Amino acid sequence: MIAAETGKPLVQHVVERVKQAKRIRNVIVATDDHRIVEAVKPFGTIVTITSPKHQSGTDRIWEVVREWPGELIVNVQGDEPEIEPETIDRLVERMESSDDDMATAATPFPAGADPNDPNLVKVVIREDGRALYFSRAPIPFRRDGESKDNAAYYLHLGIYAYRWDFLLDFSKWEPSSLEKTEKLEQLRALEHGRSIYVVKVDRPTHGIDTPEQYAAFVKRHKSG
User: Fold this and answer.
1) Of 9, 40, 170, 180, which has the highest C-beta tally within 10 A?
2) Residues 164, 68: contact at Cβ < 8 Å?
3) Element at 156 (helix H, strand E)
4) How confident is the model at residue 1 (pLDDT cuts 50, 70, 90)?
């Protein structure tokens, strides 16, 4: 069943947020689920049907964009209905002004969020702004408890920007051992020595991974 308690399917909320970004030309939903195609059809959303055999969302994106050499591609996951358009624009601006292979976004952990929740992916960031590692575990581990010297937890947001040439390489790599262990596709890039720049944003977004998170989104939507 497609979640649509707001009057729109979840992915349509994502599409409408992405369309508000100033640096995006085309918005396409890539899916292997015909129910999603039917759900977004009334909204005039462009959809591409992809193979059901892809190992990750990034592999799915490559099927859609492989005939577009030279492009910058932004992948917003379909469970991010509150993604900030400004975050999308900042990722594009970073890619246009750097030689990074890939970029993503993170925010300081929101008050009340539990770092031990495996649905909330954590990222550790280098001094130069690039990712050291992503994990569902609480990283960095706080050996001394709540010491004032502890590094902050950063919450990874479900958005990526890539260069077309990088996606070509990524598509040739088999899913890596860390990727399969954590079920995090971005680890495939790190295991192959590629860089992922992390744009830090102040406002967290709420990815939808559980029925409880979706119910909270519906409540926020109706109250807004």
Assistant:
1) 9
2) yes
3) strand 154-163
4) low
Residue where the block lists tokens 């929740």? 117
Six-digit token string for 221:
């939507």
Q: Residues 73-79: what's their mean pLDDT?
A: 92
Q: Against a cut of 0.70, is the pTM above it?
A: yes
Using CA atoms, how far residue 73 sits from 61, 119, 120, in Å, is 9, 25, 24
| Structural domain boundaries in the chain | 10-217
Of 187, 191, 97, 202, the closest CA to residue 157 belongs to 202
At residue 138, does pLDDT exceed 90? Answer: yes
The C-alpha atoms of residue 31 and residue 189 are separated, in whole angstroms, by 22
Q: Which amino acid is at 143?
A: R
CATH fold group of domain 10-217: Spore Coat Polysaccharide Biosynthesis Protein SpsA; Chain A (3.90.550)
Write out the two tokens for 201: 């944003």
Read off the pLDDT of each residue in 31-42 and give the average, rounded to a whole number.
93
Q: Which residue has the tokens 């990750």?
A: 56
User: Measuring CA to CA, how many Å separate 70 from each of 2, 21, 23, 192?
Assistant: 35, 20, 16, 22
d(CA 12, CA 18): 10
> Would you say residue 99 has pLDDT above 80?
yes
Say how far apart CA 127 and CA 130 lie, in whole Å. 7
Q: Are 140 and 193 in contact (CB under 8 A)?
A: no
Strand partners, 31: 49
